[in-house]
Amino acid sequence: GPVDTQKRQVTYPPNFTQETFERAMGDLRRTLGAQHVEINDGPLNDGNYYHVPLSHDGYAVLEKDYFVPSAIACPGSTADVQAIVKWANRWVFPLWPISVGRNLGYGGSAPRVPGSLVIDLGRRMNKVLAVDEKAANCLLQPGVTYIALYEELKRRGLGDKLWVDVPDLGGGSVVGNALDRGVGYTPYGDHFAQHCGMEVVLANGEVVRLGMDSMPGSKTGQCFQYGYGPYLDGMFTQSNYGIVTQMGMFLMPNPGGVLPFMISFKNKDDLVEAVNTLQPMMASRLLGNVPSLRTGMWDSAVYNSKEHYWPDHQGRPVPEEIELEILKKEDLGYWVFYGALYGPEDITRPQFDIVKSRFKHIKDVRFQLREDAPARSYLHDRAAVFAGVPTFRELAWHQWIPNAGEVRSSQLVCAPAEPSSRVNRQLFFAPISGVSGSDARAQVDMCKKITNKYGFDYLGTFYIGQREMHHIVTILWDRSKPEQRIAADKCIRELIRSHAELGYGEYRSHIATADDIMSTYNWNDGAFRKLCEQLKDSLDPNGILQPGRSGVWPKSYRGQGWEI
Ligand code: ADP
Question: What is the whole-number distance in angstroms between the Cα of residue 178 and the centre of ligand 1?
Answer without folding.
Answer: 9
